[in-house]
Amino acid sequence: MSRMLPVKEARECAYDIVALGEIMLRLDPRDRRIRTTRSFDAWDSGAEYNVARAFRRCFGLRGAIVTAWADNEIGRLLEDIVLASGLDTSFVHWAPYDGVGRGVRNGLNFSERGFGVRGALGCVDRGNTAISQLKPADVDWHEIFAVRGARWFHTGGIMAGLSDQAAETTLAAITAARAAGTIVSYDLNYRASLWKGVGGAARAQEVNRELARHVDVMIGNEEDFTACLGLAVEGVDAGLRELDTDAYRRMIERAAEEYPNFQVVATTLRQVRSATRNDWGAIAWSRSRGFVEATHRPDLEIFDRLGGGDSFASGLAYGLLELDDLQLAVEYGAANGALAMTTPGDTTTATLAEIERLVGGGGARVQR
Q1: Could you give the CA distance from residue 207 to residue 214 in angstroms, rounded to a whole number?
Q2: Helix or strand or coil: residue 223?
Q3: Which of 197, 320, 355, 363 lies most in the core, judged by the most C-beta atoms within 10 Å?
């Protein structure tokens, strides 16, 4: 059987993955509220970056990040944190800083975890950031994709939604990647707060529908497919108390029909019982192998839900890239997402061995 995706050989490429997106400083009040805390933990935070970081730290593959920071102490703090990821940062664009942030600045992400009936809450401060002003000419895409070579490129709807300029740069990056034979994955990652001041869901659809026509692997949840691609399907509703898996299949089939370039489509299945207890699973489809579903984990205990979807995306991409097995890909994605939500911070701290143990049916017994 031929491969699901025409992935380049590792020996032909300097990178297994390259990701484009904003990396913000996440300020976490731990078990307090943003509005009442007097201290924060500082983390790295960025949807597209989270996927590349997992490739390097969890799966042991080679990666690079394309982003932009204002050249000030906050930018250098972010650089110091991101250097620990092991990703190549040589394609970071440093924007000159004017001293007060009138022209350019770095993004801040204030996020509290939620507990019980109090949902997780985010307050992002990212207007006029360096990455939102990044131009296609600021990055040597030919060097990345044609000279050094990358097997996989990942970006998403958060990057594209930062500004009109960011959408233009995202399209340039995707186009360059596909021209070089790199597989392109895209996580829709709809954020109402990101789009509400620039046209709302209508503008989100305009931008994402154009970009979707250049994507090989499309990822999202039910809200993403509805808000970003206009693919509302009866029975697919995050507010329902029970999941209608058949409805999710119909949603994916609609996406695959409208976008013949999609080779793989995947969505997480999440029912929020409370902020700290979710039903968690995933479903995936490939044009050559049909539908598969991950092990469903009802009543999963959540410590910090942020980054669960990104960790799913990284596990899915790893399974497609390295294992060429759709069932294992969706299982690795769901397991990595589940494990990521047991620790603080946006990025997964799981190891490949832990993921494989969970996929194999292992439980939470002490390891010693």
Answers
A1: 12
A2: helix
A3: 320
